[in-house]
């Protein structure tokens, strides 16, 4: 158990389970409703997650409000240099605009579909960080 910013966090995984490399696309809501404490919590969570990535993992960010933006054009290996660059990017996240969740998720799926040179037996995932309902797009 861990207490982070007044919240209890519990991580668990069976010890006998093998650890597979992860291919993670973080889809981050930066709409107006995320302003203030919510975007601060999102930045803090992402910075912690970046520290926990392993060198064999791959990752990228997609941010969205009424527009969708890719941080990089492909997944990056979780090297110390790439994680530091990502941490700098995370620090710049600000909130404004609408919420086009659908287009952001479709973009994330596309990023994973076109990914190349990923580790064999890796696990691909999309992690959506949002606070609400779509207000633009579908």
UniProtKB/TrEMBL annotation:
Q: What is this protein called?
A: Inter-alpha-trypsin inhibitor heavy chain H4
Q: Which domain of life is it from?
A: Eukaryota
Q: Give all residue intervals belonging to the VWFA domain.
A: 23-138
